[in-house]
Amino acid sequence: MGIGKKARNIGEITEGKTKETTGKVFGDNSLEMKGKAEKIKGKVKHVVERARDTLKH
C-alpha cells in the first residue's frame, strides 16, 4: 500500500472517530452516525488495500 493511501485511510478513520465522539458529547445523533459511517469506510478501504498488497506479493 502506498504511503499516501495509507495516510488517507488512517486520516479518514481518525476523522470519523472525531465526528463520532463530538456527536456523542453534544447529543447530535446525525453527526455521531456520520462519524461511525466514515470510520467504517476508512477501515474497509484500509483492509482492501492490505489485501491487494498481500495478493501482489
Explain how this protein is built.
This protein is mostly helical. It is elongated. The mean pLDDT is about 90. The protein has helices at about 5-25, 30-55. The chain is about 90% helix and about 0% strand.
Helix and strand sequence: HH
The proportion of residues forming helix, as a percent range, comes to over 70%
Round the mean pLDDT to the nearest integer and report it.
92
Number of strands: 0
Distance between the termini: 11 Å
Question: Which stretches of 5+ consecutive residues score pLDDT under 50?
Answer: none
Strand content: under 5%
Task: Sum up the structure in keywords.
57 residues, mainly alpha, 2 helices, elongated
Itemize the secondary structure elements and their pairings.
Blueprint: H1 3-26, H2 29-56
Helix pairs in contact: 1-2
Summarize the structure.
It contains two helices and no strands. It is mainly α and 57 residues long.
